[in-house]
Design goal:
The complex is a heterodimer of chains A (326) and B (657). Helices cover 31% and strands 30% of the residues of chain A. Chain A is α+β, with helices and mostly antiparallel strands. Chain B is an alpha+beta fold and 657 residues long. Chain B is built from 24 helices and 21 strands. The model of chain B is unreliable at 198-204 (pLDDT under 50). Classes of the chains: A alpha+beta (326), B alpha+beta (657).
Chain lengths: 326, 657
Amino acid sequence: MNLAINLDFGIARRLRQISRRWARKRHGIDPEPLTVATRRIYIIPTGMGVAFAVMLLAMFIGAMNYANNLALGLTFLLGSLALTAMHYCHRNLAGIVIRSASTEPVFAGDEATFQIALENTAPLARHELLVANDQGTSLPQLIPANGRAVFELQLPAPRRGLLTLDHFELITRHPFSLFRAWTHVHMNMTCVVYPKPAPRGLTPPPVETDTGGAQDSVRGDEEFAGMRPFHPGDSPRRIAWKAYAREQGLQVKVYAGTAVTSHVLDWDALTGLGTEARLSQLCRWIEDAHAAGRAFALRMPGLDIPANIGAGHRQRCLTALAMFEP
Amino acid sequence: MSAVLDHHLQQLTPLGQRMVWVIAGLALAAAPHFGHVAIWTLSIAATATALRMTIEIKRWPLPPKWVNTGFAVVAFIGVLASYRTLNGIDAGTSLLIVMAGMKLMETRSVRDLTVVVFLSYFALFAALLYNQDMVLLPYALLTAGLLTMTLMRIHQTESMPIGTAAGTTAKMFLQALPLAAVLFLFFPRLPGQFWAVPAREKAVSGLSEEMSPGDVSELSLSSVIAFRVKFEGEPPPPRERYWRGPVMHMFDGRAWRNAGSSFMPQEVASSGSAYRYRISLEPQQHNWIFALDMPTEWDRRRAFRAEDFQLRARQEQIAVLTSFDLESTPTYVTTSGLRNDQRRLETYVPRNRNPRTLELARQMRERAGSDEAFIQSVLTKFGSEEYFYTLEPPVLAANAVDDFLFNTKRGFCEHFASAFTVMARSVGIPARVVTGYQGGEYNPMGDYFVVRQSDAHAWSEVWLEGRGWQRIDPTAAIAPERIERGLDAAISAEEDVPGRMLRQNAVFSQLRMAWDAANTFWNGQVVEFGENQQRWLLEKLNIKDPRWEYLGVGMILGLVGFFLILSAYLAWKFKPRSRDPVAHVYEQLCRKLAKLGVPRQPHEGPNDYVARAAQARPELATQLAEVRTVYVGLRYGPAPLPTQLSRLKFLVNQLEA
């Protein structure tokens, strides 16, 4: 009895697409944060709900046939209970605040994980909520009264660029799974998809050694460059214990200047390859250099990122690859 | 104890933990079916349940699908073989219980458990079809509550505490109750069944279509209630409380049989007072209405009076509690004549049986000279000679009447009625045995009479020229206290009468009457709630011309009202509680100023914003200045006063938006 609802047969899918397009036209792109208004919540009985209704109908016929008031009373009570459950199901969604939470970039071919934060401003808990779209479903969760919960929705990211989650549904079947209430959310949440790293093989470009102390005073650890007062968080290895012993207070030794080996990762050096292959190769080199802790610069048409190290630099370079348009 | 149970539960898989609750619900729903459903179906369901739980505990693999299918087919055929039908409550319930067991056996998912819960609901429903006793109401509510709570809990990903689930379920039941009540009160009831089902075979003690006094050595006296009667005005005296049942016409020398009576209308002239009353019959296997002898008025659409004056319902069986409004007159004359075939039937006795009785009757008739005198002399013989009224008579020989009259001389009403009728018939007086009830217990709390199976009685009727059928009760001659004060008084103290001790104890008697009065109220107001009560209800609501359309409109209004009230209530329950009254007033201020054309910019604090508003609307400047001072004082001042808050509320209210 559940088949028609669960399986994506042609007509059901068409109907669903039509209803979604209609909902999109009706509600437009949603602001963030979005508070779920009652007028955008849809509700229909599930397969189990239909089965329950059929059971009630059979009970009703039996009770009327035997003119049995107690049985009729039970039938009416269960029917009213189902209608009460419908209200609970509907209300379980209404007033929830939807926010997009951070979404980590992924490489093409991986699964992007969109994080959606739901906030419950009501003094009562919300039960059995889940978010879903065509590709996947999150685990159902409970949001305690005045609490919040983060739902994860996974989406395949086949190509580099910006992956947009333009639609998902917030669904609940609480309390008895007799009804399914849902709302369409169109928030345009994005996830950066880096190019897929090429397989190892092509040798990286030659290494330049650069001792540019002036370049970055914060990083590098080649030469002693003086002392400064201790801040919480400084490494204990850098504390000048001798100075402390001389009762000069906690001082931290500061080093400057780097003898950093760095690559210049150049688009033009990769002759004979297509655009996507070049991007993949650059991605591979960036990942290797970053893993080895070496600095690298990135040169691409219309873009020149000077040599640097660190997660921020890596992200900047990979994002540039992801968003590159020839 | 519960800790140990908890520990055991924790060791189960999540599905197993849910299953335990589903099984508990199913057991509660199936329990009332003990006794009226083939015991093997309950055993099968119990075995399947035990097996499934063992599999769950031991983590064995489930049996393959074809095993389950095979069992299901066998069980199906078994039900069909047991009942020879699938139509009707017995077969349906058996099938339901077997199916629930089978479904449990193959349960792998929450969906399967849901199906078992649905089947349990249905089993509970079927239990109500069997029995509508008052005590079943709390039981049914409890079971429905447990099933509903289980239905909710099995659909939670993380296990829901029982307290929370029970609370929510109770709340939902209370919220559903008003709509259920409206539907119950206003849903149009249909007269009669629209889907015929085989009559239920149920051993109900009571009168039958046969009477064989010689075969009974101990009359089983059941205190089961046969019917209740409520009189309008004064009830008749005890000696007139004869409740007429089936009439026995055929005698084979030992046993009496009801011949099945034709539907010929008979005329009755009443002489004396008539009684109007309402009789509520408990379910029985027949359609007999035990009217006070002699019924003169009844609803012709629902009942008819047979040729032998037995009142019968027009349906085949009184399967549920049913009431009739009747009128009877205890003093009457039947004016229709006796047809020849009737006379032959009512004077027939086998000439080769009971020879001593026939001879005695012939002699007595000769001595008496007239039919009336003969009857009187027989009654006198019963009263003056050594005849005893007892509930434990000896078994009689083949010529039962001879044996009783000349040897044993001990018997109860059936013996005396039978002997008298045989004697009357043998001398040519048309006579027959009437069975029914006599007496009844008055319940002062509910002002009605209860007639039990132990009040069953048999008497005779003779046809006399010019007077028609006349009631003659030989038992009244031998044991007049049976008629005047009931069975307890007629039986000697040594003999055991079930329940006599209880009846003679004042406290128990009071309790019993209170309980029966409550049951009667329940039966009248709930079990028998129907078209008449609905009409009355509508009249109370000042609807003069009740029509079904009104009921429909009433129900739709009830439904709409239910939707509106429940959604408003839930919206209120889920509304975010305003945590800060000052912030609330400030928001109100911002809304008002925005309407006045000065919306707050996101970066603006209260000082800047109110200053800007005062600039834009100079006419409000003084008011706004005070608002600003009070607000800043409340928000950032050292010790905010409640008076400041009310002042702020007042000021903001004063602002004209």
